[in-house]
Description:
CATH topology: Rossmann fold
Oligomer: single chain
CATH architecture: 3-Layer(aba) Sandwich
Helix content: 25-40%
Amino acid sequence: MHVAVCLKQVYDPDSTFRQTDRAERLDDSGLVRVVNPADKTALLLGAQLAPDSTVTALAVGEEDAVAPLRWALAHGATEALRLWDPTLPSGLSGPSVARLLASAVRLLGAELVLVGARTSGYVGAALAEELAFTQIDHVVWAEHRPDGLRALRKLDRGMRELVAAPLPVVLSADAATEPIPPVGLPLRLRAARHEIPTWGLRELSLEARDLPAPNSSVSAYVPTRRRTKRSAADKGMTPQQRMAQLMGGGRAGKSDSKKVVEGPPAKLASALLDFLKTKDLL
Length: 282
């Protein structure tokens, strides 16, 4: 079984970013790009599902797309391939990325394709449509069986769903909650020395006109408007009471209806009866 795993870089969620003015493009000079966490999980899952098979890491982009491929080679991928052509624009739409990936998957003959869920947007669904593969999304666990794959999907409200599907399949993996352990220096050095070929449109048997035209574009980025916290003010309050209300989240001056009663059962029963009588419930 040939496995293909699609990876990309995203902005580090721990990076500090602040936008104060309307702009046509974001200033990302202070941001750090890292491998998409969900794509990392997809790569580890692909290597686990096919330990003795070829696992090819795929990335679409210019020279910066090599970084996630190096990471994949150090963490279980056996081959890596960058998809790019000098005639392509720097910002490709999701459908265009999916078509490039689908062409590479066909040429590689991969039966199982893994992508990262959520942060990869709809590329997983578009890739499954391009290839006419079955798609299983939000996967947290999977196993390869003689009749295909079994996968555990994460649903809303903490629910889980166990599904089975024959190959070929596109799996969209959710990011793992536990940190991925680092690899040793020998694996990193081997990944750094590994030759990563680049396939352009000619190698993919595509032309620029074969890529879908973007149906939308970003015209401007508008910062979020700050909202002033408001609280109901009592005109009869003194400045000290007003300050206590602001610092207490608007609770100053309000009586606390909660009361804890402790003691023997007879005392607790009497307190409960008194409470019910004051509320006209008895």
